[in-house]
Amino acid sequence: MAAIIRRQTQQGTSYKFQVKIKNPLTGEFIPKSKTWAVPQDMNEKQAEREAVIRAAKFEEEVRAIHNNFNPNGTLTPDSTFKECKDAYLAKLE
After folding, report:
1. Burial of 43 (0-12, 13-18, 19+ CB in 10 A)
2. H or E stretch including 44?
3. CA 15-16-20 angle, 5° bins
4. Burial class (CB in 10 A: 0-12, 13-18, 19+), 19
5. Which of 8, 10, 18, 79 could staple 3 via S-S, CB 3.0–4.6 A?
6. How far apart are CA 31 and CA 18, in angstroms?
7. Per-residue pLDDT tens for 4-62?
8. Listed residue (74, 31, 20, 29) closest to 88, CA to CA
């Protein structure tokens, strides 16, 4: 689940969505984030609902990009350079 952080700025309310993806080669978590500014005509409850929807879509986008490179989960921290190169070249085909 994406983390949703509400912020009050001078321009109005905004939401920051953050998803952490585990790098299969190093085992480290990589944070990916996106900010959405609430339109002035939206009330607080509508903004909260829209933020949850946008956070879920953002998480799906990030995970799809990540899984596109490693579709079968074949790359692990113990993968060799050749295996990474072959996976990358297979993705280009």
Report:
1. exposed
2. helix 44-69
3. 150
4. buried
5. 18
6. 7
7. 999 998 989 999 999 998 876 677 888 999 999 999 999 999 999 999 999 999 999 88
8. 74
**Nearest residue to 39 via CA among 29, 50, 28:** 50
Domain with 18, as residue range(s), is 3-92
Q: Can you tell me the distance from the alpha carbon of 83 to that of 65, in angstroms, rounded to the nearest whole number?
A: 19
Structure-block tokens of residue 54: 């946008």
Count of structural domains, the chain: 1
Which token pair is 34?
């996106």
Q: Say how far apart CA 38 and CA 21 lie, in whole Å.
A: 26
* CA-wise closest residue to 31 among 46, 45, 19, 48: 19
**pTM of the predicted model as reported, rounded to 2 decimal places:** 0.70
User: In the structure encoding, which two tokens stand for residue 61, read together?
Assistant: 């986008």
